[in-house]
Design goal:
Number of strands of chain B: 2
Helix content of chain A: 55-70%
Oligomer: heterodimer
Shape of chain B: elongated
Structural class of chain B: mainly alpha
Distance between the termini of chain B: 72 Å
Strand content of chain B: under 5%
Strand order of the largest sheet of chain A: 1-2
Strand content of chain A: under 5%
Strand order of the largest sheet of chain B: 1-2
Amino acid sequence: MKIINPLLIVLVLIALAYAGVNAMGMTLLFGVVIPIVAFIVFLLGFITKVLSWSKSPVPFRIPTTAGQGKSLPWIKQAKLDNPSSTAGVLGRMALEVLLFRSLFKNTKAELTEGGMLAYGSSKWLWLGGLVFHWSFLLILVRHLRLFLEPVPALITFLEAGDSMFQMAFLPAFYLTDAAILLAATYLFLRRVVSPQIKTLSLPADYFAILLIIAIATTGVLMRYYYRVDVVAIKDLIRGLVTFSFNVPEGIGVIFYIHLFLVSVLAIYFPFSKLMHLGGVFLSPTRNLANNSRAQRHINPWNPDIKFHTYEAYENEFREKMKAVGLPVEKE
Amino acid sequence: MYDTGKIITGLVIFIAIVSFPFWGSFGGSTEAPKPVIKVSGQCIESADFMRANHMQLLDDWRNSVVRGDSATDRIYTSITYGTKHDKSLSSTGSSLVSSGEKQSCMSCHSNKEEFCDTCHDYASVKPYCWTCHIEPKENI
């Protein structure tokens, strides 16, 4: 059920866009209104969520100390695994965000036939995740060709690199198209094939990945199979980003399905696990320097205690103390 | 201690990146390109068909002309009009379908910069026609 329901939702979304555009001709709704609403919901939702996180206190340092901490000068520090400075933290975060270093250390526990517990290296999730996220990023950046006029040289360069193998398809085949479909399929099957991971998975896990697979599939079908009028599509998108909305005639329905699924993803984004896009930067076990012994970190919710020091006590009672012959520090 | 300041800095950077398509478009033209057609009359298929399928058509032509061995592989019959045409992008010589000169795509659409390039540049499409064919030199 937890796989069927998300799948049904995605199929209903596709049918909705198909019926809306093909049967009812609501191109303005699916081409302009929904994408604009989606962008606003995405942006405001994202900001609200991160601002709510930003109110959390950071009472002390809790980095995972995965190596030798800063110590005596002749003991070599593991600067990336146990950073003590901002530079070290930046390095650790960069490797985390760009190369998923924590996932690279993923292990797999297995009971051997003799009943021994054995741990082995398990890199497939890391590889699948890395390929998926990088393809997604490149595809996203590549789409800027439909937003900007003139198209910046960087985007053209990226496209040329992505389509360097001019093979089998027309127009030039993008490597990232194949990469994201393969990686997303692996990430989906992983949650189906392995009983342990299937138990841990929730409908939300399947929905996100199925929605992204549907987006990639409609994009691939639109580019290589159904063919749409790219110039008309760019007109529509240029209308969106310059606030001079117009809906050109004759754009294939596959484009509206693709756009609607992307809009749904954008609306869903701030309320889902996909917020790890912002959250990864706020991982306290990674983004804090291990400097607890070098610097004092004050807990922000400590109560404001009124201390009565001995000095103040003596000032208050000095005359009385002297009168009964008690020793005082200051005369 | 709170990290609100750092988080808001990051958030501002994020907003700047996400809204780039909007502020990056300031001052840009919103005019859709209009390819210039120098000659009057009709193409080998309807304009709508050509707009959607010209790349597929040219690709099919290339494959059938380069790999096919009979004369029929070099002749295209229009789906819309039923007329016969030489499969030719830019070559000249005697025609297989008429007694005169061969009519190629470039015979009518000789203005590559005003015709082909307007849309291709707009959509950032880089066709590789001219890696083999000799690119038409205009204004010479």
